[in-house]
Protein 1
Amino acid sequence: MKLLAIHWALIGIWALLTLASIVVFVVSKRSSKDMSELVQRTQSWWVMVAIFTIAFLVSQTISIIVFALISFLALKEYFSMIPTRRADRRVLFWAYLSIPVQYFWVYDHYYGMFAVFIPVYMFLFLPFASLLSQQTDGFLKSVGTLNWGLMLCVFSISHAAFLLILPATPESSAGGAGLLLFLIFLTQFNDVAQYTWGKLFGRRKIIPGVSPNKTWEGFLGGVATTFVLAMLIAPLVTPLDLAHAAAAGLLIAIAGFVGDVTVSALKRDLGVKDTGSLIPGHGGILDRIDSLTFTAPLFFHFIRYFYY
């Protein structure tokens, strides 16, 4: 029953992606606006959805490894952008080493260490490792940027992986796999919806000093779309009742926007357009998971509080 529900959900995603591709093709041919970035994004989605589907269906362990790889690539992009002191080079090794350790706690189902390893042990250890160089100039800024990178790219994203190992409930046989699918799909669909609504109807800037392309029309259109979609999808793959599904939809839509503009503020501060160039039309890995850095931990604890 679990596999059947997940399979149908994945089939639905592929069908929706096919429909979206057709719509984007038609709109790009008829619109006077430049839609080349939207076309590139849609093409990249085919690759990303294919990778996600394969990892999702092969095994739970492979899925956890894929999330660990995503954290590694995101952290690598982050460290390549931020200014670091020569003395911090050795500290970066310990930051990277925290990735397999953090995801081991996920694999081992050890919630206690999963919850405290980075925000307690690593946040206390990295300053100590940094001060061993005995260079105090820029120490506070260095520690803050290193710890924030771990929080954003590793700790936050690992919550998505931990969703995967949550057991089935009486309300839903899909268990954690359904919850993860629900989170990933709505987070990414919310990004697409806000971008599309803004591209087609955007007029009034919502936060021009941080992200000039964000508009109220795009934000509200994305929130409304994600809100409705959450209530339609939740009964299929999650234990959420209608009220919790609606709340989860709003949470993911709003948190996704905040995560997006937070990374935009980071890029604007550093003077870069994208965090990388790995994904055509999207930029880097961190550009693609910026919303997930906020939605994953918030949704995870929302689910854990009400259902586990």
Protein 2
Amino acid sequence: MSLERKFSADKKQLTVVADDIFDFGKVQDFRIAFSTDIDEVETVIIDLHKTAYMDSSALGMLLNMQKLLSGQVTIFKIINTRPQVLKILQIARFDKKFLIS
């Protein structure tokens, strides 16, 4: 899997670290990253510190993740965004659906 997963000690927080390119080629890996072994997860953090490029399919993956986990997860965060990626997220109005920093 090309995406890194990290759980907090209490298993209530999952952090998924995306690669430098976050696009359609990551669909399968991303789905596995956010949907396996998450019984106790309440917060999902997507760390984009490596990500220099993301396309519309990445935006769709983020929305699908939120939709699929909304019954369980109460907080969705996107962190460490580079300026060009932050601009994409702001144009797509993701600041209304995710906490972005």
